Amino acid sequence: MPFSISIQSPFYTLPVRRRPKQFSNPQNSTPTPLCSSAVPPIPSPVTEKMMTGEEGQPLPYVSEIVLKKRKVRDELAITRRTQLELGKYGAKKSKKQSDVSDIKRPEQFIKEFRDKELDLIRMKQRAKRSKSMIPKLRSKLLFIIRIQGKNDMHPKTRKILYNLRLRKVFSGVFVKATEGVMEMLQKVEPYVTYGYPNLKNVKELIYKKGYARIDKKAVPLTDNNIIEQALGKHGIICIEDIVHEITNVGPHFKEVIHFMGPLILSKPEDGLIKGKKQPYKEGGDAGNREDEINDLISKMN
């Protein structure tokens, strides 16, 4: 039973009740609450698993090499996705990412329009030249190379180049030398250079750069059966017959030229073509080179 002690005071004696001593229960490790109003402790998830008998499963072991490979693979995937979004070599930009500098100003449109009109005026002036200024034809075969792009080019000039099948820069075609062709070349003189190719360059151009246009597809001239199927009715059955027909400008020259596509030449070395639109005789790159076209062909083939 609880007992009390008294504190001596000059006025009265105050009884003091002591709390009974707590004895631990060896069968139950949980301490007994001192009073019924005490809040029980909140068990943690780990404690709940231990109480219910459920233990956490250990994580699977992954070696360091596998983790490094995964990291490298993820980085490559991100880089590849960025390249696909930006375009080839990451240079192109989408419409949303375009800079303000890509927007053309009104002054640029005016300058382009004036340059094109100036090109048309100069083309008309070249067309009005007297026929005596057109050089005399020394051969039946001409080889034409386009050396300028489409900047500052009037649509009429572009149409003449397309009629000559010169749609790309540094592309070349064989044509039959006539007065009508020379008049066309005179109109587009700043954009092309031409001359008389020899047998050696004609043969090398056809063997190295020649191809056929079949069903709008480029087919290399590696099999004589392709030539025989297309030109066999004209007596042309092999690549040597094509070289002979083009060199001598034979009766089926037109059919052979349309069977073959324009020759795509290699880009010339630095300093070989300076980009000047002046005639070749005046120190430029354009115009008639006559026999000196063979040096340019050998360097661009």
TrEMBL record:
Q: Does the keyword Transferase apply?
A: no
Q: Which UniProt keywords apply?
A: Ribonucleoprotein, Ribosomal protein
Q: Can you give the residue ranges of the Large ribosomal subunit protein uL30-like ferredoxin-like fold domain?
A: 142-192
Q: Where is this region: Disordered?
A: 16-46, 275-301
Domain Large ribosomal subunit protein uL30 N-terminal eukaryotes positions = 62-132
PROSITE patterns the UniProt entry points to:
RIBOSOMAL_L30
| Record's compositionally biased regions (Polar residues) | 22-35
What top-level branch of life does the organism fall under? Answer: Eukaryota
Residue ranges annotated as compositionally biased, kind Basic and acidic residues, are 275-291
Q: Which residues form a coiled coil?
A: none
User: Which family is it part of?
Assistant: Belongs to the universal ribosomal protein uL30 family.
Q: What is this protein called?
A: 60S ribosomal protein L7-1
